[in-house]
Amino acid sequence: MTTIEMKKQNKVTTLSQFIAEEQAKYPGSSGNLSKIFRDIKLAAKMVNRDVRKAGLVDILGAHGSTNIQGEEVKKLDVIANEEFIHSLSSGGDCCAIISEEEDYVRHLNPEAKYVLAMDPLDGSSNIDVNAAIGTIFSIYRRVSPLGSEAIEADCLQKGENQVAAGYIIYGSSTMLVYTTGNGVNGFTLDGSIGDFCLSHPNMTTPEDGKIYSVNEGNYNKFPEGVKKYIEQCKDKAMSARYIGSMVADFHRNLIKGGIFMYPSTAKAPNGKLRLMYECNPMAFLTEQAGGRATTGSQRILEVEPTELHQRVPVIMGSSNMVSELESML
Ligand code: AHM
Ligand code: MG
Fold first, then answer.
1. What is the pLDDT of residues 200-225, one digit of tens each?
2. Shared-domain flag, residues 134 and 46
3. Whose Cα sits closest to atom 15 in ligand 1?
4. Is residue 3 a part of any domain in this protein?
C-alpha cells in the first residue's frame, strides 16, 4: 500500500502530527521544541535533496578546507551545515548551535531556551562512494537565564540533560529517528507527499545480537579487553559489519541488535567520535531503545563535557553485549 493510499485510510501519521500529539500530552508546553523539529525537518529535506543529487551536480568532493580537528571538509558537509543553521536560525527557537563543522558556538536568538548540537553530515568519507550518511542532532535546555547570550555552561551539558536527540539517515530511504525521552520512533520520508511518516513506532533494540561493528584495522592498537572481545565474536562466528558511517552502522544495529564501538587506541586514547555531536545523542537513543552506551568505564550520558569538540571512546548497543565487553575491560 502506498503512503497516499494509507493516508486515505487514515493510517498515516506524519512527523508533525506525531509531535503535535506528543506536545498535547503536556498542556503547559510552549511548543518551542516542536518548532525546532519543524526546522530540523525542513533542513533534513533540503540535505536529502542535495545528497540525492550530489552525483549529478558539482557538490561532491573536498571543499578545500579543514575543520578544527584538521580533517578534510567535504562540500556537502559545508552545505548541510549551512542548511541546518539557516533553518534553525530562521525559526528562532535556539539560543545557540554547536556544530562539528564549526570552531565556536554560534549564537542565535538570546530569547530562546534551547541549545542544539549537531553533526550536520556524519560519515562524510562515504559521500563520494554513494554509501549511507546521516545527520545527528541533540537538544538541551539552556541553564543560563533567557534574554542573554548563551554561555559555555549552556552548551557543555552532560548527555543526561538532553531533552531530545535523533538522526536522519540518508540511505536506501531517508529516515528520521528521534527520542524525547519517551521511547524511540522512526519516520520515513515519503517523497510523493514530501513528508516524514511514522514507519517504525516504539523502536527497541534486542538485548543480544549477532553483529559487531568496529574498525578492525585498528585492532593492534585496541585495549586488551577489546581485543579479547573481538576474538570471542569471531569464535562465535558473529557477523562483522562496519560501513564507517556511524548513523548507518548504528541504525542497522538498533534494528537487528549488535554492538558498535570506537574504542580508544594507543594513538587516540579518547577514540575518534565526538561526545557532543555523536556519542551523546546516540547514547540517549540507545538507552531509550533499551540498550547501553559506555566509554568502557563510564556511562556516556554521565560524562562531564569539558570542550566542544571533545572525543570519548564509545561502546554501545545491545545491553548484554555491552555488559559482556565491559566485564572484559
Ligand atoms: P566524520 O564525522 O568526520 O564523518 O567522522 C565520523 C565517522 C563515523 O561516522 C564513523 O563511525 C567513523 O568516523 C569511522 O571512522 P574510521 O574510518 O576511523 O573507522
Ligand atoms: Mg561525525
1. 999 999 999 999 999 999 999 999 99
2. yes
3. 244
4. no
